[in-house]
Amino acid sequence: AALALDNGLARTPPMGWLHWERFLCATDCAAEPRRCVSEQLFVEMADRMVAEGWRDAGYEFICIDDCWMAPTRDKRGRLQADPKRFPSGIRKLADYVHSKGLKLGIYSDVGSKTCAGFPGSYNHYDLDAQTFASWGVDLLKFDGCNSESLELLAEGYRRMSVALNKTGRSIVYSCEWPFYLRPVQQPNYTEIKQYCNHWRNFYDVYDSWSSIKSILDWTALHQDTIVKIAGPGGWNDPDMALVIGNFGLSWDQSVTQMAMWAIMAAPLFMSNDLRHISPEAKWLLQNKEVIAINQDPLGKQGYQLFKDKNFQLWERPLSDRAYAVAVLNQQEIGGPQKFTFSLTLLGNGLACNPACSIRQVLPASRDCGVYSWMSSLSVEVNPTGTVLLKV
Question: Distance (Å, rounded) from C-alpha 314 to C-alpha 308?
Fold first, then answer.
């Protein structure tokens, strides 16, 4: 396996809250004060994360995405926050977030401009890394827009990794490197893992079932390439944002996203409005058993075992010789369907040899009992839903 980035961070997939997807690039605070990408938004989310149990459940990062900057750098060439939307500056915001026992993430871009057209880090990697460290930033999401060539893109990702390490501050490095390479060439994941703590592979997640389904299909199609590289210190990012608690997913589809992001050992960054979230969505996102699967210290990513018509069977090796198993029903018509599979399929035949206990984690927790090696298990799964098991 490739050596992970030598910063000692992200030993398990990072967890937190991210403004992109739900709040996008809303910059008109006069017209939309509650939706605007502003100091106030992040302060309010930090308050909610502490008061309503998100921090205690493991969500520790509050992440600023694109559109936080002023349109130009300052007189010394440094990035600066938009003075109207972030009147206290990023350092003060970081101090506030830290006072809550949370960590602050920020966004920049490897190219000359960010995806939304704000100043990028090209030719400023060392300066920007020093700036972020001086502000007390704990994570950098580094996008890949507006780079003139794949060579400059790769060089920029490498240089920013080195620059962040040189600051002496512990800063998780979130890359978009393979996503921008893939249309032209196969990413070298061994190299990427030596520079990045997690790396995005696929398109932006949308608040829709078609988006979630396309991410899962892509991951299964490429699992032979990507699964083996994931582990403590470096993770595949299917696009981190959990859109649970928004508008586009049914309950069963929300269960599927939570279950499958846990199976994939994906970073868990919610993008929703924690000021307005249903008790059901909160229960799902704070589910301790699912989070424990995602955060399992063995650090192995799960994979699809097989497909059978509309059903998919996935497994993820866990510590203490356990396995997480997901049964996904992709059918979008009709009612619940029963799926039966042999337990000899799990763990190369070893998961239930000579016997195993099985617990259902989602959509509701219950003990299923003890099964022998040659047994079969039947589960009933709703359309676009998932049953998550721990074996």
Answer: 12
Q: Please list the alpha-helical segments (H only) found in 52-149.
A: 54-57, 89-99, 125-135
Catalytic residue among 6, 56, 74, 204: 204
- What φ, ψ does residue 323 adopt, rounded to 5°? -140, 145
Residue 109 annotated among the catalytic residues of the structure = no
What's this model's pTM, rounded to 2 decimal places?
Answer: 0.97
Cis amide leading into 317 (omega within 30):
no
Contacts of 333 (CB under 8 A, 6+ apart): 383
* pLDDT tens sequence across 201-253: 998 999 999 999 999 999 999 999 999 999 999 999 998 799 999 999 999 99
Instruction: Select which of 82, 138, 143, 207 is catalytic.
Output: 143
Q: What is the CATH number of domain 303-390?
A: 2.60.40.1180
pLDDT tens readout for residues 327-340? 999 999 999 999 99
**CATH number for domain 15-295, candidates 3.40.220.10, 3.40.50.300, 3.40.1010.20, 3.20.20.70:** 3.20.20.70
pLDDT at 239: 85
143 flagged as catalytic? yes
